[in-house]
Amino acid sequence: MPDAQTELQYSNAYELLVAVILSAQCTDKRVNLTTPDFFKQFPHAQALSRATPEQILPFIKSISYPNNKAKHLAGMAQKLVHDFNGEVPSDVDQLVTLPGVGRKTANVILSVVHNKPAMAVDTHVFRLSHRLGLVSATANTPEKVEKALLSYILMEDVARAHHWLILHGRYICKARNPLCDLCGLRQACVFAQKKVKSSDAKP
After folding, report:
1. Buried-most residue among 23, 103, 127, 140 (CB within 10 A)?
2. What share of the chain is helix, strand, coil (3-state, %, to 5)?
3. pTM higher than 0.85, yes or no?
């Protein structure tokens, strides 16, 4: 995947921000089925800022944790309009002031929209970083994994590397049943090599 990209569908920074907030503990496929009707109703931050969580809820009821996310989206839009004139900021410290936006979401916006060398560490990136041996066992938080990866991945590759890891985790190195036989990285993977040694050791 030489040009790996997000699988979330969006046409501007506002739409991506909404999609990433909705994607927490939810599949991109489900989000992509939900956002077209959502964006027809709330095409920009100003429209969303005028909506209450109760008005937002029917449009995201098929998404995981819809009540919390409805509150986050309402608060995010209000702050976006009030503090940033409706424009999604390009600074991580400003982004994380928005309701529903943590460091992972902020880094997705920075890397995808602004092409900045930001490494968003979600469950896939965290899992693969340890399985492949890209980080040590002491990197036991998303922030530590982020710091470790940024210490040696070339800055021009960071934005793509985020998607390389996510897509590899989504389709090959799955959480419960990693498809090691199909993996082109197995020769360099700590987890795969341990499986081989364990298999060889069996009588």
Report:
1. 23
2. 60, 0, 40
3. yes
Per the CB < 8 A criterion, the answer to whether 134 and 175 are in contact is no
For 22-53, write each residue's pLDDT tens digit.
999 899 999 999 999 999 999 999 999 999 99
Q: Does residue 136 have a pLDDT over 80?
A: yes
Amino acid identity of residue 111, one-letter, is: S
Q: Which residues have a catalytic role annotated?
A: 104, 122
H-helix segments, 13-172: 13-23, 28-41, 45-49, 53-56, 66-84, 92-95, 103-112, 123-131, 142-150, 158-171
3-state secondary structure of 144: helix
Q: What is the model's pLDDT at position 67? A: 97
Determine the Cα–Cα distance for residues 122 and 168; give it in Å rounded to an integer: 13
In order of their start, the domains of the chain are 13-112 (1.10.340.30), 123-201 (1.10.1670.10)
CA-CA distance, 39 to 18, in Å (whole number)? Answer: 9
C-beta neighbour count of 159 within 10 angstroms: 23
CB 3 within 8 A of CB 160: yes
Token couple for 76? 């995010």
Per the structure block, which two tokens stand in for 77?
A: 């839009």
- Compute the distance between CA of residue 141 and CA of residue 29 in angstroms, rounded to an integer: 27
The amino acid that residue 162 corresponds to is: H
| Sole residue written with tokens 């900045």 | 116
Q: What mean pLDDT comes out for the span 93-122?
A: 93
